[in-house]
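does this look right to u?? adenosine-5'-diphosphate version
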Amino acid sequence: MTVTATVEPLVKARNVHKAFGDVEVLKGIDMDVAPGEVVVILGPSGSGKSTFLRCINHLESIDQGSIMVDGEQIGYELRKERLVKLGGYAIARQRRKIGMVFQQFNLYPHMTALQNVIEAPIGVHGESRQAATDNAMKLLDRVGLASKVHNYPRQLSGGQQQRVAIARALAIRPKLMLFDEPTSALDPELVGEVLSTMRDLADQGLTMIVVTHEIGFAREAADRVVFMDGGNIVEQGPPEQVIGNPQHARTRAFLSRFI
Ligand code: ADP
Ligand code: MG
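got this back:
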């Protein structure tokens, strides 16, 4: 007899459908993400990448299918074997497991880097100021901003602001991090420092789903690359397969723009 290790996926999306009005934007997405896995989602504009991330984080509700994160169904719970929609408080609790970083960093302009990072831990999660500050200082150090903790966003470059936003997302101690085109709003010379921070997080074992057009990052940091088009997953696999030897014409057409 053989004993095998089974690891439950951290994210389990099944047949996820989402429409806006008559337009079906997600047409049955299935995706598992294992703990510690780094998944990069590639795809043309309008293919549903952001919508899918927003559904995982319950910023959008889904029309059909299910999304499980860390064993809990997003937006719902079972009560007496019936699926019941969760209210705002319970959704907020689920969201604490998930950190999200957006293209626009959306830092609070009137708060320093440190204040931005401790705001949710203190205000939402009831951490003591001391504990939240200690953790925030560690996180800001981890993203290379130990010397900028008392700077305001306007005193920071775009790349530094995005790294503060990453530290802020990490401050709630999420099990899963979602990144939606985190470098798309940056000047080209600032992209590298943000990608390198993300690569460090990936190396440290954080579970990440990253939507990006940075093919180099996908190639180097992804355990798996998922190519989406038209609300479907067209193909997925290790980067050397999907980027190095794409099987579908749509994937090849998309990738040809980056060469
Ligand atoms: P991507 O991130 O891959 O560029 P999105 O998920 O942002 O794609 O969008 C997919 C499609 O859904 C687009 O056609 C977009 O216009 C549409 N869409 C996204 N959000 C909304 C919304 N809140 N209301 C209506 N349409 C939306
Ligand atoms: Mg998008």
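The longest strand covers residues 23-33. idk if thats expected tbh
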